[in-house]
Records
---
Amino acid sequence: MLMTLLFEGRFADYLRDAAVGNGAVIFVHVPKTAGSSLRGELAARLQPDMNIEVDYNDATRLFRDKMDDAVRNFLAGPAEHIRFASGHLMGRHVAQMRSAMQGARFITFLRDPVERVVSDYRYQRSPKHPPHPQFREKYPSLEAYLEFKGDRNKSAQHLIAPAVYAGRDPEECVDYLLRAYDFVGVQEMYPLSFRTLTALIGEPAWPKLRENVNRNEEEENLSPELAAEVREANAIDAALYEAVFPRWRAIRDALAAHLG
């Protein structure tokens, strides 16, 4: 459990043992967790790279089927040659890639689940998301969106192996996250998380890009009652975040001093 080394304050051990070698770095991009910014900066440092994506304008097939094909095609060819890959991968894809890509490092970012859900809801209603007209019609309010069980605990669906997630046990999901990922950053400490991650690839730096940032008053003025409803509907995501963010906060000053 490499992240345990980091959270125990054993920074030199973590940076040594989690360092990126010749294998690929796989970024599991949970939507609305600063992933677009991170992808841009890491791709510039780790070439060749590939973004595993699907055609959102194709309404004839489900996202899961399109992404299954994209991952299958990736593993059948480009995976052997890339140094960095990213995408809105699901837990089942991560398990496939871990088996097929020996020596790969798996990284991700978390975000406060209430802010992530609201940001995701707003994004899917915006013109940046091709099927936004259908989404707006189906989910005219955040309350209506919360009724859609398929998008609950989206972070966990992307990050946790299906067999583990199926049990809906928060402790088991947290244990899996900390065992399975070489790096788990948090958006709320994005600069320090970014510097730690780039230190692992031997190029410690501070971030320069911030893309697709869409925070606004709707997130800041969410009523306590609705925020509690969002958190309750995303209890596994809340457990993941509450297991990771306080640990980052506890090491923040010491880690910043160590990284310089």
---
Amino acid sequence: MPVLASPGFGFAGVVLVYTLYNLTYSLLSYPAGAWSDRVPRRKVFAAGIAVFAVAYFGLGITTSAAWVWVLLPVYGAYTALTDGVSRAWVADLAPDATGTALGTYAGLSGAASIVAGIWAGLAWGGTGRLPLLISGSVAGILAVVLWFAGDRLERDPEPAPELTDLR
């Protein structure tokens, strides 16, 4: 999660803006999951990565604390579009070894978070903008690649049953 080093953010401001982030994340998670049941999960995940790119690049260029109030909920939308959807995508890709696949995914995600945190700390510099700008730019490219990657990255999941079909 981005660190708020922007002037004008005291302790209460940080708590409130992260509460807004979590509220956005929680409100958008169900619609994002439902969307991923109707379109390829890869596209929902790619949309989430694109939203991440906007949030991180925006946080990297802004000098105003007011923009953080806009961009952190955008970051919450990224989390909603990728967190559960990525797990469902992994489960779709490995239907015969779901537990192993999800465990591997969790382990690799944790390791990637450690590497990303170390990299961001080393690249921090004077204002902390550089890691945000680089991460936002790379994520934007990744989002485009994922969006247009085609069906090689997924299996066709069974369509979600309608509520009337559940017995």
